[in-house]
Predict the structure of SFRICE012772.2.
Amino acid sequence: METKIGTITTVKSQKIPQSEVLLDNFIERDLQSAFKPLHYMQSLLICSKYSIRDNFITSNTFMYDFIGILGFIVCRSINLYNLVILMGDWKSTEYLFNWSGLFDYASYTFGFLLNYYINIKFCDDNILMVIKIQRVIRALKISSNDLRRETIFNWFAVIIINAIIIFSIAVIAYIFFPNVIFSDVVYFYFSMTYDMNMLYFTFIIKLLSMTLCAWAEDVRKSVNSYKDCYWESMFDVYMDIFTVYECVVSTCGYLVLFFAVFAISHGLMNMGVVIKLNLALAGAGIQVGGTVTNSTIFDDFVVFPDDDEE
């Protein structure tokens, strides 16, 4: 539903008209630079929320979305086949690993499908967020130095996350599990999609916070507060900020909820499996250590002999 206040249009959790999105889709260099590390990684992971070409922001092409979904289906089909082949005896202690693998497979599959669905359905909302943020930054005259700090932070975060994922693949896959197949390695790397989504949403919230602080500071220090045109302009800016917030809720809410529920349930499941395995293997001189990782490949367990038994 759309409600109009003067010349302002606010959007309440619905599909944004394409004509409105494309009214002002030119993105300035400073804002592009701030979004670039996140947009680059999302494009690499074939989960981009929009396309930026020649300084213009537009919807993803049908072919881009099709390739992403097709690649996901192929990769998950191979993962499912390998999971079924490698399953052990359901009547022994290995049934714990089987349940762990099935839970990870189902939850990650649902998470990826949810991400693709939201990116496609709310593509115009994602574009509108960027356009509105740029409009607010222009109106409040936020300096490029403030955006530059966010750009540096985003590049740093992207590099660190990539380093952790690549290090995990190198150490866990090729040292502890040297026979791991290539499709699992690819899937493990693409699981970084969740981290990129959280980083992207955090960046949007930081921009909202920055613009709200700048708006309040402008109102507090303005010498034009007696002019009606000033308050009309500031009201327009505030409604743009509010529109961005509504778009964040409609596009991010389900993904954030899924990520929180999955992280908690995944950690609790791993701890439960570790406890049960230690109880089952207590008399065999073996201890089991568990780690809470973002991997569905390696079952997150390391088995090592008890020092007292050596």
